[in-house]
Amino acid sequence: MIIKGKPRGNGAQLGRYLITPGKNERVQVVEVRGTVALDVPGAVREMDAVGACTRSAEPLYHASINTPAHERLTDEQRRIAVDRLEAELRFTGQPRVVVIHEKSGREHTHIVWSRTDLEHRRVIPISHNFAKHEKVARALEREFGQERVQGAHVEREGKQRPRRTPSHAEMLQAERTGLTPQQVKEQITDLWRTTDSGQAFAAALTDAGFVLARGDRRDFVVIDPRGGTHSLSRRVEGATAKDIRARMADLDASRLPTVAEAKEIQRERRSHDPARAQDAPREPESAAPRPSAGSGHEEKIERLRTVKDTAYAAEGAVKAIAAVADGIASFFESLIGGEDHKPQTPEERAAHARAQDEAAAARADAAAEAEQARKHAQSDPQKHRQQLLREFGRETDDEVRHDQDMERERGRSR
After folding, report:
1. Closest to 55 measured CA to CA, from 100, 109, 120
2. Closest CA relative to residue 81, chosen from 3, 148, 6
3. I need a labelling partner for 75 at 20 to 30 A (CA). Which of 47, 208, 246, 294 fits?
4. Hey, what's the torsion of the CAs at 136, 139, 141, 144, to 10 degrees?
5. What distance in Å separates the CA atoms of residue 75 and residue 82, rounded to the nearest whole number?
């Protein structure tokens, strides 16, 4: 059994990935827990939005449990495995989604948890997560009677550290470029062994169609002919980071191109070489640009929706209710009486007065709702949290629609 996982953000992209078949033969939603949304994309986006109350850009944790095709987990075994991993990572009780993907006859289970600790407004810390993955995997292998997989972090028992397996990002890059990490490793290792200095090695890389660049987080990075990015320390067989620094000491790293510049060099090479251009990978289609707000009114609506997301982040606390109420009231006031528009005509002054009355009413309703929330918050926290999120989602949407109607009426009056 192999368990992988890491913290991440971009819940919208992750939610789409989990339910998109792609190369999978089967996609099965097993569980959606602890969120108002009942669908996987909506639940993951909601967990991501809740993370807005923290300063972390990675409020989610995405893990996968992988077994060989001949060792499929039963439903009960899968539940035990997910719960065991959840407890080890200290995510017990956190909102989560569980989805099964099947590809080439092999099942793997994806789990996404919310890392947001709502009580303290921070993310649950992740430390030694790779070792925790292996600890759970080794225990489950013994419990389920499965074949043991040697890991790099726990239960080594004097055994040699296993070779590092390609990451998910590396596998996706290999599919895009047509060059596997192993192929690149063999080529670069041959060049490394046939040279004796950093300058000679860099020249050999250039002759072979690679570009040596300086990395943002690593000392040296290699860009392959198809535009793929590779850490040099991971593509030289048998060489440690210390060995690489010693060999490359005669090179001035500051004079090397950046990764972006090196990729541009490779694009220019392909454009001037028909053979390379024919074999070049397709550039991923860029996402369609988001339409910009055409007026201050649309921008204010967008800010109000941001307030709604912040309310999600504040969970069932009364502070969340006050934040949403203040956001709604501020929206009314800025829409009618803001700097970009001051009431001039009697009709506009009347509309301004109505907006102020409605803002005051919104605050009063929120105060009453907060009082009711205090009385019932202790009875059923999970049910109360979901009820609050549903109610404020409806109220905020109603206010947006009401403001849009007012804006149209004011336009007709002008």
Report:
1. 120
2. 3
3. 47
4. -110
5. 11
pLDDT of 221 higher than 70? yes
pTM above 0.85, yes or no: no
Residue 343 scores a pLDDT above 80: no
At residue 117, the 3 state secondary structure works out as strand
Q: The tokens 């956190």 sit on which residue?
A: 94
Q: Give yes or no for a contact between 85 and 134, defined as CB atoms under 8 angstroms apart.
A: no
Which of 356, 362, 366 lies closest to 320 in space, CA to CA?
Answer: 366
- Residue range 361-382, pLDDT digits in tens: 766 776 676 666 555 545 555 5
pLDDT digits (tens, 9 = 90+) for 271-320: 877 665 445 444 444 333 434 434 444 454 454 445 445 444 444 444 44
Secondary structure (DSSP) of 207-234: HTT-EEEE-SSSSEEEE-TTS-EEEGGG
Domain 2-144 has CATH 3.30.930.30: yes
